[in-house]
Queue: 4 jobs
Job 1
Amino acid sequence: MIIDKLSNLRSYASFNEKFNIICEFLEKNDLNSLCEGRIDLSDGVFLNISSYEPYSAGDKWETHKKYADLQIVVEGDECMDASSITDVEGPNGYNEDDDYEFYDICKGSVTTVRALPGTFAYFAPCDPHRPGIKFNSEKVKKAVFKIPV
């Protein structure tokens, strides 16, 4: 997991070259003006824009196999939890079509991030995470870039 200011995103391009695709998109587009839905970029990178009501934290953790997530809160705020794959239990089976696997419980340490506009959270495919947890806002607009691995 990586958490940082959006203004620093390009500095991570050496970690993952596809960050440059995202940075170029962000330089040319205002996330606030984008409608909900999917936008295909290049090299398999795509963006999902969604709006939703954050929920109370449960014990539903997710991982991926094909894609990493780069999540940006556009409007509102939320909490995002992350842990280690060795600390989650109860996998419920991998959904290949939508690239996720849910886990029932985390029995280890948890890192909680208060995600605000202007920040990003990067979750590698093996990083169990719980985004969308209520902080202050009643509604959140979020951009999630899916980065193939």
Job 2
Amino acid sequence: MAEKKISEARQQKAAQIEEIKAKIEKCSAFVVVDYKGISVADDTKLRSDFRSNDVEYRVLKNRLVQRALDELKISGFEGHLEGPTAIAFANGDPLAAAKVISENSKTVKALEVKCGLMDGAYIDAATVEKLAAIPSKEVLLAQLLGLLQSPLSGLARALQQIAEKNQ
């Protein structure tokens, strides 16, 4: 009877590890955070922000996450998967999880970035913060458009002034 329960527990853990591996393989990036001390209201707002940005936020067992990472041959997370840990899996924009966490950590001091994964490689907390500071694709495109338009508008003004001088 006891052996049957142990076997069932092992099967459940194996299934959880496979589920975590599937999430890691499917996501474009993920961020590991320490959520110790976060209030229910702040956690609810954080989860809502994640949902609206196509990010899945899960509290997972550290040992199971480490086993899934080991099986996928991803290293660098040793020592970071300790204590209360949650993982934000970005399914679309790889920077979405980092941006949401960075934005919320300004008001929720208990939220602390531990590390992350991008392009199949470990990234430290400082790199996650730098990535979160990158403007969105739309903002970058608008800045590029502004840069491309500025020489043309300058040329147009110069030609207009020459035309006015010659009249």
Job 3
Amino acid sequence: MTVKPNGIKNKRNHLFLLLALGVIALASAYSVYYYFIGSRHISTDNAYVGAEIAQITSLTGGTIKTIHYNDTDTVKVDDILVVIDDADTKLALARAEAELAKANVELDRTKLDYERRKALSKSGSVSGEEVSNSENAYKAAQAVFNVAHVVKEQATLDLNRTVIRSPVEGVVAKRQVQLGQRVQQGTPLMFVVPMLALHVDANFKEVQLRKVKIGQQVELISDFYGNSVVYHGKISGIAGGTGSAFALIPAQNATGNWIKVVQRLPVRIQLDPEELKKHPLKVGLSMQADIDISDDKK
């Protein structure tokens, strides 16, 4: 049995027609998608959760007496994190108060002496030199009193600083201090991560950022929860430079084999605290960010 050439040709034309219709359908679908969605949104999966982490340091020296929280513990504002032994600071405060009281007595004595001699100078009972000397003594006592007052205030402050409180609500991380450890002023003790004040740093390609403005709406999905949880955020800022520009050793493309690399610019996205309460995130988690740029007048 032989196949007629016209039959083969008709079959081939039919297949080409189906292929052309398929290409047209795909092109039409892509055009519709790009017009209604693609041209109005930009997205990236190069995004990570960040936070302004609070570093807890000692503001006075001493021996660690009590530690109330460990890593992963939740703390609230003003919760006591660490207590430093206050025996030395109490003695310093008592000594400062005694010096202040002594300076106050001397100040009162020199003031009374100066006022008495000043009054007697009007009748000529005392010389001008005696008045001048008593005035200088009074001023010196005043200076000593002021110094003693400052020392007392510093001792009070040091005593208050033996109790270290949390400045933010969050989760304790990287606790470095141990019970009985001797710390100095400025010693790092731990970190507190503010879990309700998280943001996302999304690194977009430079060619994507033409219409990106502060205040635009962003939808985000975390790899931690998957597509079942969608976060809604707002652009709060755009970085002043790329990551390579702020690198410790920036690239210097001075040779002839230079190859252009598309740079990425960090965009900060503020998350909704209410959504973070329902679905908590952790610093460093990967995110997918989609910015609605349909309204570029924001």
Job 4
Amino acid sequence: MLTSLALIFLVGLLTGSIFSRMNLPKIIGMLITGIVLGPFALDLLDPSVLSISSELRKMALIIILLKAGLSLDLADLKKVGRPAILMAFVPATFEILAYTMFAPKIFGITRVEAALMGSVLGAVSPAVVVPRMVEYMEQKVGTKKAIPQMIMAGASCDDIFVIVLFTTFLGMAEGGAVNIKSLLNVPISIILGAVLGAALGYALYDYFERAYEKKRYIRNSVKVIILLGVSFLLVAVEGWLEGKVAVSGLIAVVSMASVLKMKSTVFVSKRLSEKFGKLWIAAEVVLFVLVGAAVDIRYTLEAGLAAVFMILIALCIRAVGVAVCVAGTKLNAKERAFCVISYLPKATVQAAIGSVPLTAGLPSGKIILSVAVMAIILTAPLGAIGMDYTHKKFLERDV
């Protein structure tokens, strides 16, 4: 395991640095590192690391969501309002509809299987999007109109909506019926997650303040450990309550960090955000190398041009969905184009659930996995490069 971790960190950082010097996003190098080191290429990673890959990726995602929450100004998010809510489900719905309409003709699968494919491909990758939005917020780029805040909030909720739909369509494809209860769980899980996180955020703020008043100063490093521990528990609670009460652990993490920022002094929240930023340097490498390791390049080759064509059609229709979300706002054409670009990348969700239909024994499982793999390889770099190259040109810097 130690050798595998050494390879993940050292080779991942090296390739990331090489791509960075080429003025390309580091994550492309990290994804390629994972593909090359992974079980479907050189197979240099220990099975014990791969067996906990999903947990490690989730831990990395929690770290960046904590930093996001500590950087998010709720007052700015209130200014956005309606578009932020719509971004959580409208673009994904448009993309799923695109697969439902066109995939049966392109791949010869049923409508239900096409909808299942759409639910696998419909989620934007918070791991690609959120770190960039946090960076733009820190640079005061686009924050006057709360564009990074809107995209970050939408991307954080988007996954929950899509995964619930995936579960529903998977049941239908296996011969089950539509589960209305599952669909209702989407808003319930978001609301309960936000409430639970807010309550814990206030409780932690109160605890830190009381300790300070009693001159029992808690170091920021210890606060980081406490926040990480509580966040891991919040995500675990989601699993414990599965089938009983729908609660989104990741939304709870963002909510907790946001309330902590709102109640704490600017100095404290900034220091905590900086510390999570340092943790993200290591977490980012682990996350994207392991996402790459989950990619079976053989399925990419089998997918062919038909998969590329389908993905491009779906992304165009998804872009219409994003345009619907920002319609009627004060955003100009360039800012709306940036929102479209930000909602392109796929990675974490597709790596996590892309192989589930194949494992479930569905006839369409192989083609669904093939398209999911192709989408990661195409859209993660495309979205990352697009955001990196357009944010300074399309968004206004606040003075």
